[in-house]
Amino acid sequence: MQLSTPAGPVHLTYCTNIHRGESWAETEAALRTHLPVVKAKVCPQAPMGVGLRLSARAAEELAEPEKLEAFRAWLAAEGLYVFTINGFPYGTFHGSRVKEQVYQPDWTRPERVAYTRRLAELLAALLPDEPGLEGSISTVPGTFRPLGADLRVIPAIVANLQRVAADLVAIERRTGKRIALALEPEPHCLLETTEEAVSFLERRLFAERALAVFAREADLPFAEAEPALRRHLGICLDACHAAVEFEDLEASLERLRAAGIAVPKLQLSAALEVPRVGPDTMAQLTRFDDGVYLHQVVERAPDGVRRHFLDLDRAFAELASAQGRTWRVHCHVPIFVDRIGDGLASTRPSLERLLMLQRERPISRHLEVETYTFEVLPEELRASGMDEAIARELLWARERLVG
């Protein structure tokens, strides 16, 4: 939905990766089931934006002209519009072990390039012809960190990002639709933090030699290459991921602005927090160890020293030395939740701070609630049902954005 906030208009939605569906038939069935219900609860009299998630299989199937036109017609009839796509998970995302496979194929692989190109073409076809309305696609931050430790993969990542950014330039020339690709920093990835993402873009993509390559790819004069690349490539700032890394939000935003890095999408999400690790911590967190998703843990000691763990089992192995410290866990929980039983909290205060900063000075025009873990959360967090929880999250965010 479009909101008028003190800092200007924004589009608020939720990411449909919360719904199961890998084929287009499954995805379409989920959208037809849930989107009208959520819209009726949140904005019955106004159009509602959609944060679309398409697997590679669903994207290929939707690209068939008849299916795409039928979907466009259904969106229009229901008062819905697509303005952003989650292009992070390529394959299966629900119901079986995902873990580190969610990053594959990564940006070293041609499959990631082809998938993202298809998403861009679909978004260009779905994006309404409205002045000022742009599109965004969030994506994997390069690769899984252990793979990125081999610096030989970096040139391939850079070259593939350049190719897709050049495609986005071509799409804008051809259709008039401007779409930006947004790398989403995440714990234990090549780009874990905002600072790492900014540094990567500055050194690898916006450096003079890289811009010369991009200019050739995009068929642009060299003087136009950097402005074009900055329009079409930026960062997706995920509030959960930033909180897990204990990022200083003001410092991160200042770094982005000073570097002139765009934030095509802001994901509104919250992580689990253990304010003080104790004897009951393992029992408390085991309920969230779903076996499907990777739950990276970042520990902070009173003196600020941090330790990173790939998953909960690695953190549990160090529990004895973690007593009294703070853990933040990459597990998306409903954004309206603050306390989660005894001993657990969420990083909602960090998200509230981010929304306040967004109200004061726009960070992004695209805001997307993302709580894809809903169906594997403990029962008490699912008691209201999925549609009600989604609506409650959107209303909670809207209240804080518009006052």
Describe the overall structure:
It is a single chain. The protein has 403 residues and is of the alpha/beta class. The protein has one domain: TIM Barrel (Alpha-Beta Barrel), CATH 3.20.20.150. Helix content is 44%, strand content 18%. It contains 15 helices and 14 strands. The protein has helices at residues 24-42, 56-62, 65-78, 110-126, 145-148, 154-175, 194-205, 208-218, 222-232, 239-244, 249-259, 281-286, 312-317, 348-360, 386-402, and strands spanning 2-5, 8-14, 48-53, 80-86, 135-139, 179-183, 233-238, 265-268, 270-274, 297-300, 306-309, 326-333, 345-346, 366-369. The protein has a 9-stranded mixed β-sheet. A 5-stranded antiparallel β-sheet has the order 11-10-12-9-13. Helix 4 (110-126) links the parallel strand 4 and strand 5 (135-139). The longest helix has 22 residues, at 154-175. The chain is globular and about 60 Å long. The two termini are 16 Å apart.
